[in-house]
Amino acid sequence: MIEKERIIPRIILILQALIRRLPLNHPKLHMITEELGKRMAGFKGETALDYSLSFLDPKKYFILHDLRIPHKESFFQMDTLLITSKFILIIEVKYLAGTAYFDPIFNQLIQIKDGNEQALPDPTLQIKRQESQLISWLSKHGFPNLPIYSCVVMSNDRTIIKTSPANKSLNKIVIHRHSLLDKVKYIEDSMRKETATPKDVKKLIRTLKRKHEESNPSILERFNIEGKDLLKGVICVACNHRPLVRKHGTWFCLKCDSRNNDAHIQALKDYELLIAPTINNSELREYLVVDSPYVAKRLLQSLNLPTTGTKKGTQYILSSDEGPARKHKQKNPPTI
Questions:
Q1: How far apart are CA 72 and CA 247, in angstroms?
Q2: pTM score
Q3: Which residues of the chain have pLDDT under 70?
Q4: Which of 12, 72, 85, 18 is CA-nearest to residue 42?
Q5: Closest Cα to residue 279, out of 291, 292, 296?
């Protein structure tokens, strides 16, 4: 059973919003687009694993995706966590094209594609570190000492996995996604008895979900971009023209003559992702390029957003959507 759904990572939504809100000639645009491409490839790799996981017995296996758990002074992240009453399996997913060469001498992963080599961090070291952190976290929170296993899954079926002849144990740690079910069965068969009760498992799942904190990086600081660089106004979904003009309760595009009643929703989502989690009437007017405070008030009130303050001090909370709109199968943009 999937206990924590896989949703589009917030960092991807932030990068998409930033690309929408930067001029085409901005010097950082190419760098940001490359970053988004890498993030999308990683997310594609994670979702490719879902088909294999769907064959597991939902009454025995409990799946949590994209966990980020605070521990000591930092966080540790796990792509997918598989929990049973006998063991826990940490799954790190990699989606690489070409050849993946695991160098055991320098502890690095070398991707070879189209004759080019790129050095990447060794994911086998990463999962060992995750094992240690999870063991420490379980002990701190008083959970049973469940056996913890880990593996790196190459979710691109065409990836060629190589290593040195001396690194004979790699195939026990690094596998293709079509071998994942065999890996789970092998671990299951090696466990003679259950270590945790159903009550322990349910409590562990509840605690992990409650402790999870999604990363919310300050992307403007990271790329050294100032707020004044961001484009204002509602963007046309048909031709990308901006700003749209608000007339008679709808948005008009002066370039392609299209109309849209709800085009401001994506604009406000961009605001929440890039600028601030709250907005007031005057800030909305400046951002959406709307002159009338009454139009701005109607737009804000129509969204039924939670508020703080009163009268001119009213702040509308642009809360993030953690629900179905961010599940990876959803094609529509997230709503506020």
A1: 54
A2: 0.85
A3: 320-336
A4: 12
A5: 296
